Amino acid sequence: MPKKVDHEQRRRQIAEAVWRIASGRGLEDVTLRQVAAEAGVSTRLVQYYFGSRDALLLGALELLSLDQKQRVEERIPKDASPRLLLREILIGLLPLDEHQRMTLLVQLAYFIRALNDEALAAAFIDPEDQSLENLFIEIMTAARAQGQIADGLDLAREADTLLAVSTGVGPDILVGLKTGDQVIAMIDYHLDRIFLSSE
Amino acid sequence: MPKKVDHEQRRRQIAEAVWRIASGRGLEDVTLRQVAAEAGVSTRLVQYYFGSRDALLLGALELLSLDQKQRVEERIPKDASPRLLLREILIGLLPLDEHQRMTLLVQLAYFIRALNDEALAAAFIDPEDQSLENLFIEIMTAARAQGQIADGLDLAREADTLLAVSTGVGPDILVGLKTGDQVIAMIDYHLDRIFLSSE
């Protein structure tokens, strides 16, 4: 079905134009006309694929969220230890490469609008964080059963902390207040507290 | 000098209109005309007090940063223990009241633009975080000298963690994924790790 593939590629090409504009200049400049120019297509084509500006904003965000999910999943090594598994997911959330940097910027650009727009909020808040939190608790609970976790820890709070460290420093990395190495050292500091072994 | 006071009040009245629009709908709607309407003054008056849209954006952000600094400082209790001091500052950074909520939203609205605008970046990134980090390290170092800190902690990393927890969960509070009580419990969890006494 070459026609179908072509449609998907075209939608992605337009969505990528939205991402570039939103991450570089904010939503302010995401208009049908400017997106069309950035994507190198006509405004009519953008309308054909997405409809209104609202639908374009939503569609581009949905594609980005899907992308990020896949990227984090691809980073997870097979047969990794619980500690390494957590570490890879956490590092995967940091804006250390161009794509993750852009993803965080697009999310920041959309944030306020999503607070007042249920459809955007669903594509956004969509409990990715919650499910990561639960995944982290599961991983650490399994590691505890194997005697790998330090005594006296509240695993739900530790999961929250790991996520807060990873997401809380994102903007600091973007503005250059922290380097990726500094943040990874911070993640390791907490993994050292949580796990009895360094492997 | 009643004239001077009046000028400052007028600037603040206009800045507050910028904050309300930016926190509610993003920078997209912060135009001279919409700000004038929101402030209940003429577009000419906005121009008289701030000049261009760029200067208005900058001036409103500077006033907000000043405000936030004062509010955090006012929260700090006199003769507080090191632990209570940290706790009050950290809670003061959370979007738990209407003003802190608005402050965080305005900062999010400005973020991408500040990455590409040195004047905005200076009003923004202006090393408030860095200085808070250093203040936290100082407070904990003094507490350590008095035997109040648990063994084996890297105080710079702990300072980073406390700040990351506080800033990292801000958006989660705004979207309702976390309550203020949950986040305060998380802050206390870390203060319990760091401080030997609960006072």
TrEMBL record, chains A, B:
GO terms for molecular function: DNA-binding transcription factor activity; transcription cis-regulatory region binding. The keyword Transcription regulation applies. Transmembrane segments: none annotated. Keywords: DNA-binding, Repressor, Transcription, Transcription regulation. It comes from the Bacteria. Residues 31-50 bind DNA. SUPFAM superfamilies: Homeodomain-like, Tetracyclin repressor-like, C-terminal domain. Residues 8-68 form the HTH tetR-type domain. This is DNA-binding transcriptional regulator, AcrR family. The lineage of its organism: Bacteria, Bacillati, Actinomycetota, Actinomycetes, Pseudonocardiales.
